[in-house]
Amino acid sequence: MVDFKKLRINNILLAKKTIREAVCEDDFIINSINNIEDLAKVANVLCKRLRQWYSLYLPEMYNKIGDNEAFVRLVLKKDKNTLMKELKLSETMGSDLSKNNLKPILALASRIDSLYTLRNELKDYLKKIMGVYCKNLLTLAGTVLGAKLIESGGSLKKLALMPSSTIQMLGAEKALFRHLKSGARPPKHGIILQHPLVGGAPKNKKGKAARLLADKLSIAIRTDFFKGEFIGNKLKEELKKRLK
Amino acid sequence: MVDFKKLRINNILLAKKTIREAVCEDDFIINSINNIEDLAKVANVLCKRLRQWYSLYLPEMYNKIGDNEAFVRLVLKKDKNTLMKELKLSETMGSDLSKNNLKPILALASRIDSLYTLRNELKDYLKKIMGVYCKNLLTLAGTVLGAKLIESGGSLKKLALMPSSTIQMLGAEKALFRHLKSGARPPKHGIILQHPLVGGAPKNKKGKAARLLADKLSIAIRTDFFKGEFIGNKLKEELKKRLK
Prior knowledge:
Two copies of one chain form a homodimer. By secondary structure, chain A is mainly alpha-helical.
C-alpha cells in the first residue's frame, strides 16, 4: 500500500523547494524599481516639510531653489551667510534660530539626503543585475525604463512572449480599455513615453516613435530571454536612423 | 514735504523685522509634530516594501512579526539562521540570496531605522521645548497630543482663547459641521480621544471623560499662556479622581 502520509510530506517539501528556487532576477528588479519609485515619493513629502520648516530660518530659499535635491544639499552644506551671499540677498525675513532649534531641521535634511543616496545606490544595483540579465534591454531602454517594463510585464519571460504592440501600450491600460469599451481614441504609448527618443519627439511623431521603439525593444527582450548575443548598440543605431 | 520713498523703505524694513521676530515656539512645535506624523507615514510605506522584498529571503517573517519597527530591527540585527531559530522554523520557503542581492535590502532597512530614530529625536526635542513653553499642557496631555492640540488650534495663544468645548472638538470638525448642517449626532471628542484617560474609558463614559479632560486642558493651556505656576500634576490628579 502507498504511504499517503509520506507522499504528502514529500510533496510539500518539493513544493517548498520549487518556491525557494523560483526567486530570480525578475524579483530583484521588480522590488528595486518599486522601491526607487517609493523613495522618490517619500523624499518629496519630507522635502515639502523641510522647505516649510527651513522657511523660519531663510524663507527666501523656498522659491529660489526649485529642485528638491539641490535644496537639501544646500541646506546641509552651506550656512545662512554663505547662502545669502549666493542668492544675493542683503537681508532676510527669516529669524536667527538657536543651535538647538536648528538641529532638528538639519537632522531632517540629512535623512532626506540619505534617502536620495539610497535611491542612487539602488539604481546602480539595478544596472548591475540588468547588465547581466538583460543587457540588450538595458542598453536600449536605460535602467529605470527597462526595469519598469519588466515590472509592468511581470517578468522578462512574459515580456518576451508579448507582441511588440502590447509592450507599446504597457502602462496605458486604462486608456486602452477606455478605447476598447467606448471607442475613444486609442493611446499611442504607455510608459515607453519616458524614453528620450519618444518623449523628445515632436507631437505628431510621438506615435510613430513609440511604435518603432516598441519593435526594437521587443527584439532586444527576446534576444535577452533566449540568451542571444549583444545587439543593443546596433538596435539603438537603427532606431536613431529611422527617427531622424 | 514728507519723503514718501524713504517712508516706504522704512515701512518695509519694519515689516520684515516684525516677520523675523514673529517666529516663536509655536512654529517649532507645529513643524515638529507635522514632521513626526509624516515620518510615521513614510516609514510605513517603505516598511511595506521592505517586508515584500525580505520575503524573498525569509517569507515566514512577514506574518509572524506584526510591528513594523520590530520587523526592521530584527532584519538589521539578526541573520537568517538566528531568526529561524527564534521563530522556531525548521525550514524556510525563502531562497538564499547572495551578499550582493541582500545588500540593498539591508540598506533599505537601515534607512527606515534611521527614520524611526529621527522621529524619536523629534519627540525628545518637542518635549524639551514644551517643557519650557507649556509645561502644564505637556504634563496633562503628553508630548504628541499636546503638540497636536497646538497644531490644530494654530498657536498656544489661540488655544488659550478658545472655550474648552472647542478644544474638546478639535480634529472632529467634519463630524461637527455634519451635525450642525444635517442634525446628525454630534461628535463627542476630537483628537483628545488619543489621551489614555479618554481612549481607555468604557464606551458610554468616553464623552464624559472627553469633556472633563477638555476642561482641565483649557485650564492648563491658559495657565501656560499667562505664565502661571505649574499646576499640571494637580490637574492630572483631580481628573483621575473624577474619572474613577
